[in-house]
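Review form for a predicted model. The reviewer records the input and the model, then writes brief findings.
Reviewer: anonymous (R2)
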Amino acid sequence: MVTGHFSRARCGLIGRKTLMDKIFLTELKVDTIIGIWEWERRIRQTVIIDLEMSADIARAAATDDVADTLNYKSVAKRVQNFVADSSFQLVETLAERIASIVRDEFDVAWVRVRVNKPGAIRGSRDVGVLIERGERPG
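Model under review:
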Protein backbone atom coordinates (compact mmCIF):
# COMPACT_ATOMS: atom_id res chain seq x y z
CA MET A 1 0.00 0.00 0.00
CA VAL A 2 1.39 3.40 -1.00
CA THR A 3 0.88 6.19 1.48
CA GLY A 4 1.71 9.86 1.39
CA HIS A 5 0.98 12.59 -1.11
CA PHE A 6 2.06 12.27 -4.72
CA SER A 7 1.49 15.07 -7.18
CA ARG A 8 -0.23 14.25 -10.46
CA ALA A 9 3.05 14.98 -12.29
CA ARG A 10 5.02 12.71 -9.96
CA CYS A 11 2.63 9.82 -10.53
CA GLY A 12 2.58 10.45 -14.27
CA LEU A 13 -1.20 10.74 -14.34
CA ILE A 14 -3.26 12.79 -16.72
CA GLY A 15 -6.94 12.14 -16.14
CA ARG A 16 -7.17 8.35 -16.07
CA LYS A 17 -4.25 7.69 -18.39
CA THR A 18 -1.05 6.43 -16.79
CA LEU A 19 2.02 7.57 -18.66
CA MET A 20 4.89 5.15 -19.17
CA ASP A 21 7.52 7.63 -20.27
CA LYS A 22 11.08 7.14 -19.10
CA ILE A 23 14.23 9.19 -19.36
CA PHE A 24 17.54 7.34 -19.22
CA LEU A 25 21.25 8.00 -18.80
CA THR A 26 23.75 5.27 -19.60
CA GLU A 27 27.41 4.76 -18.82
CA LEU A 28 27.89 7.80 -16.60
CA LYS A 29 31.52 7.28 -15.52
CA VAL A 30 32.69 8.72 -12.22
CA ASP A 31 35.89 8.22 -10.24
CA THR A 32 35.27 7.68 -6.53
CA ILE A 33 36.51 5.88 -3.45
CA ILE A 34 34.59 2.61 -3.20
CA GLY A 35 35.42 -0.72 -1.65
CA ILE A 36 35.98 -2.69 1.53
CA TRP A 37 39.71 -3.41 1.24
CA GLU A 38 42.34 -1.09 2.68
CA TRP A 39 44.02 -0.57 -0.72
CA GLU A 40 40.64 0.45 -2.22
CA ARG A 41 40.26 3.17 0.40
CA ARG A 42 43.49 4.81 -0.82
CA ILE A 43 42.67 5.06 -4.56
CA ARG A 44 39.90 6.32 -6.79
CA GLN A 45 38.14 3.74 -8.93
CA THR A 46 35.76 4.27 -11.82
CA VAL A 47 32.15 3.27 -11.35
CA ILE A 48 29.67 3.28 -14.21
CA ILE A 49 26.11 4.36 -13.51
CA ASP A 50 22.97 3.79 -15.55
CA LEU A 51 19.73 5.56 -14.62
CA GLU A 52 16.20 5.04 -15.85
CA MET A 53 13.60 7.46 -14.46
CA SER A 54 9.86 7.81 -14.83
CA ALA A 55 8.85 11.14 -16.29
CA ASP A 56 5.87 12.77 -17.94
CA ILE A 57 7.33 14.06 -21.20
CA ALA A 58 4.01 14.88 -22.90
CA ARG A 59 4.03 18.55 -21.89
CA ALA A 60 7.69 18.99 -22.85
CA ALA A 61 7.00 17.37 -26.22
CA ALA A 62 4.12 19.79 -26.78
CA THR A 63 5.97 22.95 -25.66
CA ASP A 64 9.51 22.00 -26.75
CA ASP A 65 10.70 23.62 -23.51
CA VAL A 66 13.27 22.01 -21.19
CA ALA A 67 11.51 23.61 -18.21
CA ASP A 68 8.63 21.17 -18.80
CA THR A 69 10.66 17.98 -18.48
CA LEU A 70 13.07 16.16 -16.20
CA ASN A 71 16.37 17.83 -17.04
CA TYR A 72 18.75 14.90 -17.47
CA LYS A 73 21.76 17.20 -17.57
CA SER A 74 20.90 18.46 -14.08
CA VAL A 75 20.39 14.89 -12.85
CA ALA A 76 23.72 13.80 -14.35
CA LYS A 77 25.66 16.69 -12.81
CA ARG A 78 24.12 16.13 -9.37
CA VAL A 79 24.85 12.39 -9.45
CA GLN A 80 28.39 12.92 -10.77
CA ASN A 81 29.19 15.44 -8.02
CA PHE A 82 27.69 13.26 -5.30
CA VAL A 83 29.50 10.11 -6.41
CA ALA A 84 32.84 11.88 -6.89
CA ASP A 85 32.63 13.27 -3.34
CA SER A 86 31.45 10.02 -1.75
CA SER A 87 33.45 7.32 -0.01
CA PHE A 88 31.30 4.21 0.47
CA GLN A 89 32.41 0.66 1.07
CA LEU A 90 29.55 -0.99 -0.83
CA VAL A 91 28.09 -0.37 -4.28
CA GLU A 92 24.74 -1.26 -2.68
CA THR A 93 24.97 1.83 -0.46
CA LEU A 94 26.03 4.02 -3.36
CA ALA A 95 23.11 2.83 -5.51
CA GLU A 96 20.62 3.43 -2.69
CA ARG A 97 21.87 6.97 -2.10
CA ILE A 98 21.75 7.78 -5.82
CA ALA A 99 18.16 6.53 -5.97
CA SER A 100 17.22 8.73 -3.01
CA ILE A 101 18.78 11.82 -4.58
CA VAL A 102 17.00 11.29 -7.90
CA ARG A 103 13.62 10.63 -6.27
CA ASP A 104 13.78 13.35 -3.61
CA GLU A 105 15.56 16.18 -5.40
CA PHE A 106 14.06 15.72 -8.87
CA ASP A 107 10.54 14.60 -7.86
CA VAL A 108 10.84 11.27 -9.70
CA ALA A 109 8.27 8.63 -8.72
CA TRP A 110 10.31 5.63 -9.92
CA VAL A 111 13.99 5.11 -10.66
CA ARG A 112 16.18 2.19 -11.71
CA VAL A 113 19.84 2.58 -10.73
CA ARG A 114 22.62 0.33 -11.95
CA VAL A 115 26.08 0.77 -10.48
CA ASN A 116 28.89 -1.18 -12.14
CA LYS A 117 32.35 -1.62 -10.69
CA PRO A 118 34.40 -2.90 -13.64
CA GLY A 119 37.31 -5.16 -12.84
CA ALA A 120 36.28 -5.77 -9.23
CA ILE A 121 36.37 -9.55 -9.69
CA ARG A 122 39.26 -11.21 -11.50
CA GLY A 123 37.97 -13.07 -14.54
CA SER A 124 34.80 -10.96 -14.73
CA ARG A 125 34.43 -7.94 -16.98
CA ASP A 126 31.97 -6.26 -14.63
CA VAL A 127 30.15 -6.58 -11.31
CA GLY A 128 27.56 -4.37 -9.66
CA VAL A 129 24.02 -3.91 -8.45
CA LEU A 130 20.70 -3.00 -10.01
CA ILE A 131 17.94 -1.53 -7.84
CA GLU A 132 14.51 -0.05 -8.45
CA ARG A 133 12.87 2.36 -6.05
CA GLY A 134 9.46 3.97 -6.03
CA GLU A 135 6.17 3.27 -7.74
CA ARG A 136 6.73 2.01 -11.26
CA PRO A 137 4.43 3.65 -13.82
CA GLY A 138 1.98 1.56 -15.79
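Findings: Residues 8-134 form a domain with the GTP Cyclohydrolase I, domain 2 fold (CATH 3.30.1130.10).
Further findings: Residues 1-16 have pLDDT under 50 and may be disordered.
Recommendation: see findings above.
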